[in-house]
């Protein structure tokens, strides 16, 4: 079975002003010079999407960090998947642990948001991951596979589905699971995808996220069933992010 082309995605979270456009231009130049054997995506705050899409980078796609589950209507302050698509995005992150924690989003909401993204032709990057308490209690596999099963919409197909495994305790902490622990979870997620999509499940990217940086990217990205990364802090500066992207130049 072939593996999907890797995706290295950056989540800028609530960071960046219009001046951050220079990071996209710099990243584009770095990729032009040094190459990239993976797809590259940056998901900025809503306020920057239009500015960054207008750069029309040859190598860097632009996505969003969230969307509403409805397409329009009386939802003050919210943004729909259709609006995001209209700006030129191809991806939306849904179910990030910070949304699950800060906004009380449950699997049902994540499923509805992923469905909204997919219904307008966008790819949903569905985030899952266990807390430190769940890991210590030996429940990581159970929690993550349950989240994957419950968060993938019934109408999903392999072409519009990406999973990001992000242990909550590894996000922004500088801590990472061992390669063996990452492999165990990614293999379990793959099994869920094979059950759901039969052999086509091999073609879905399963990203790892949580304190990925240039110095650990090669080790983490080389793990079986890791098909890319979702990166927070180290995606804000083009040079740091390219350090992660270039791990794929070594993996091949
Ligand atoms: C994230 O927020 O998705 C993330 C992985 O953050 P960091 O890389 O900073 O741990």
Features:
binds phosphoenolpyruvate; eight-stranded parallel beta sheet; 252 residues; globular; alpha/beta; single chain; TIM Barrel
Account of the 3D structure:
With 252 residues, this protein is of the alpha/beta class. The protein has one domain (7-251): Aldolase class I (TIM Barrel, Alpha-Beta Barrel), CATH 3.20.20.70. The protein contains eleven helices and eight strands. An eight-stranded parallel β-sheet has the order 3-2-1-8-7-6-5-4. Strand 2 (39-43), helix 2 (46-54) and strand 3 form a beta-alpha-beta unit. Helix 7 (140-151) runs parallel beside helix 8 and helix 9 runs parallel beside helix 10. Phosphoenolpyruvate binds next to strand 8.
**Helix fraction by DSSP (H/I, runs of at least 4):** 40-55%
**Series of H and E elements:** EHEHEHEHHEHHEHEHEHH
Question: Strands of the largest sheet, in order across it?
Answer: 3-2-1-8-7-6-5-4
**Structural class, from secondary structure content?**
alpha/beta
CATH topology heading: TIM Barrel
Averaging pLDDT over every residue, what do you get?
Answer: 97
Specify the CATH class: Alpha Beta
Oligomeric nature of the chains: single chain
Overall strand count: 8
In this entry the ligands are: phosphoenolpyruvate
**Fourth-level CATH superfamily:** Aldolase class I
Total number of helices: 11
Q: Give the DSSP E fraction (strand runs of 2 or more residues).
A: 5-15%
Radius of gyration: 17 Å
Low-confidence stretches: none
The count of domains is 1
Q: What CATH architecture would you give?
A: Alpha-Beta Barrel
Tell me the span between the first and last alpha carbons.
Answer: 17 Å
Query: What does the overall shape look like?
Result: globular
Largest sheet: 8 strands, parallel
